[in-house]
Please model this.
Amino acid sequence: MRYINTLKPTIWLLGTDFLSANPKHAHHTLTLLSHHEKIQHAAFKFPKDKELYLTAHYLKRQALSIIYPTVTPKKWTFRINQYGKPFIKNPTHRNIQFNLSHSQKLTGIIICEKHTCGFDIEYTHKDINWLSLAQGYFHPKEYEQVKRHDKNMFFKIWTLKEAFIKFTGKGLSFPLNEFCIDTEKTPMELNFSTQDIDSNHRTVKLWHQELEGGYHIAGAAHNDSRLLWPPEIHWLPDYL
Model:
């Protein structure tokens, strides 16, 4: 078994083709889901959305059990806050933080011990007016960054902003244009348009990477002296 350093945040990735290539495996995965997760899975109308959901929650349970093998994939339990962000409910593992994301045919999760975190995946091969979206939703300084660069800069900022918002646990109730991420500085800087921000949200480490196949991924985690950053990337099939 390969050693996973629990003091360092990890990102786990899995493509939807992993389950779609083996229908029996996909059927078994359904048995791992909680009653609530099964209801959510059944509610999706389109096969693509069902596949993404099933893959993401299979990834969530398997990755957690690889790092913390005393809990089997089926035994993980979860709760959600008022904004829909999930947390671990198992009494002995409540200090573990995680965040899921998926886009197109890729799912991912960030797992941190004792540190609040957020994670996002975006697929870039979309026919969208990215400059108009940046103008409408980004902070003016971010819009200027995008204008100086290209579509890749748009998705870099977009994934970082989504990861930060998911880090806060407040969803889209946290306006995208009220904070600015300066990706041109090292380390990246996070600035706010208002002073009415939780102090815990001001101390954040950010990370971004572009993957093959047209994907951008980004992570955010609460920054303190114990945090080992950046996160490590793992592909789930390498551990099965």
